[in-house]
Amino acid sequence: MSENKTLRIALTKGRLEKDTVGLFEKIGFDVTQLREKGRKLILPVPGQNIEVVLAKAADVITYVEHGACDLGVVGKDTIMEHGGKYFEIADLGFGSCRFALAVRRGDGFYGGYGVKTVATKYPAVTRAFFERKKMDVEIVKIEGSVELAPLLGIADGIVDIVETGTTLKENGLVVFEDVAPISARLIVNTVSMKLKKESIDELTEKMIKALE
Amino acid sequence: MKRYDLLTPEGTRDLLFDECVALREADAKLRGIFLRRGYTEAVTPGLEFYDVFSSKSRYFSQEDMYKLTDAKGRLMVMRPDSTMPIARLVGTRLREEVFPLKLFYSQTIYRVNPKNSGRDDEFFQSGIEIIGGDVRRSDLEALSVAIDVMAAFEAEDYRFEIGDSAFFAILSSQLGLDEEQLDEVRTLVQNKNYSELSECLSVHCGNPYAAALAQLPKLFGGREVFDEAEKILPDENTKFVLKRLRELYDNLCALGAGERMTVDLGMVSRNEDYYTGVVFKGYAAGYGMPVLTGGRYDKLISDFGVDMPATGFAVNVNAVAHLIMNNAHGRLTKLPDVVVFAEEGSLVDGMLHCRELISDGLTVDHADFKTLDEAKAYAKERGIPRLDVVSGGDVTILNLSDGKEA
């Protein structure tokens, strides 16, 4: 855990960070330092005993799991891919999109006896999805634009994050099946939750109230 | 070329100097507490048959265990836990013993953690098991030992948390969930995922058991939790469990744990059916995971042929050692009091002098050097203030802190 009285919260850099800072502003926190942060990665919230840490999504989970940060704001996509032991106490609603299985327009997916190949940036999510269906699939991990894989013929479909579906459409792909909804979650270290219950409850309540 | 000859496997580490002192100190403290309360030690094999951990119930998933095969090709595991081997012992060699049986253990545990998670795959675990005995009394006994353990380590701040896995078991059993749904609900309760839990249970709208289950993970904190729970719990069975837990809570407060006590009714057993009653955890400031975990496991021993209630807990000794290191100001490792150097021709006299000093209660480091200068340099470098030089029957004591003969 971070020091006794201070709450340290890790935010996923980028869009979730902006949305959370917006939420903090709505609560009435002084967010000037969070807005004009320069290259600093640990930032205080004046007068609040709260410290903000900026990190990549997967690292938010690591810091919270190890207790280096008490709380974290991270997407459900990262939670599903990385797992881990922590409390996931609130759905913050923003950053919402979904995991979906997409195929080339006009293609099916489940037909035939051959083992299907699925390209994805999220192998754990993909594996869990097809395990629930008791279905063997071959998973190919792709780092960049996953949409390419079916077009280049190395995969029958992709599992990826879909927001508007524009990228899929422009590449001749369509959503075949939804896998899971995604949004930003507030996660808490299991020990902090017990040792700093009051201040965590207070912050969580404020955040949820500001969401309404 | 050998790639791994200078490395230790991921999840393992060498312990040196202060780390070892802290570890042994932690172990000795725990051992002292257990021995004084009448527990006797059990040491079980580091290698066990896979079947011991996979038999009738699936308490351990196979991904979490290190496996190897013996000379006959049988599947073995590196001990992932000490409770199952002790249950095996109770079902076999200890059948005829006087019960309740109070055992403790202190040994290494091996678990496969996710890659790059930074967790130890090998760690020291120490704990107790009470097998047989009245449920109420042995719960109180196990918990009061656990509280003594937490208090012994003088962590800057610590909390002791109790709950009962029966709440989840009773409430969820009334919803007609299949195995997969049950797993899902259990995970949501365990992760305190309030929003998804409510959503998942919304199909049981109007069912008082589902309503109580949805509130369960929120029921944690101090004494007020019992009153809140009283209003929410739907039937006599769950209210009885609550009454028992409240009694235990009050008893532990009366034993002086008051300000450290918390309760969490949303504590569930990670593995199906492992815990069957009171469960508890110890948290210490400065360590991101529970230091102590335990609970009642009344079904486990019956897997090994003897039906007997049991409870116990395990302490992560490495975590406790970590706390000791954090609290220690300065070095934990004690330097020898004296370096003894024997001149050529006086080697036996040198050794006799060592013996004499040891019997006087000093710690002695015999200088394995050819010359006095080397011995002096060595003692100075290590910061040992006294050097005894043995020559024939004579001993000269050099005080190295001021460089003069004493």
- Total helices of chain B: the number is 13
Segments of chain B where pLDDT lies below 50 for 5+ residues? none
Count of structural domains of chain A: 2
Largest sheet of chain A: 6 strands, mixed
Percent of residues of chain B in helical segments? Answer: 25-40%
Give the rounded overall mean pLDDT of chain B.
Answer: 91
The sequence of SSEs of chain B as H and E is: HEEHEEHEEHEHHHHEHHEEEEHEHEHEEE
User: Would you identify the CATH H-level superfamily of the largest domain in chain A?
Assistant: Periplasmic binding protein-like II
Structural class category of chain A: alpha/beta
How many separate domains of chain B? Answer: 3
CATH fold-level topology of the largest domain in chain B: BirA Bifunctional Protein, domain 2
Q: What is the spatial order of strands in the main beta sheet of chain B?
A: 1-5-6-12-11-10-7-9-8
Give helix % range of chain A.
25-40%
By DSSP, the count of extended strands of chain A is: 11
At the first level of CATH, what is the class of the largest domain in chain A? Alpha Beta
Largest interface: A-B, 25 and 25 residues
| Uncertain ranges of chain A | none
**Can you tell me the CATH class of the largest domain in chain B?**
Alpha Beta
Q: Can you give the mean pLDDT of chain A?
A: 92
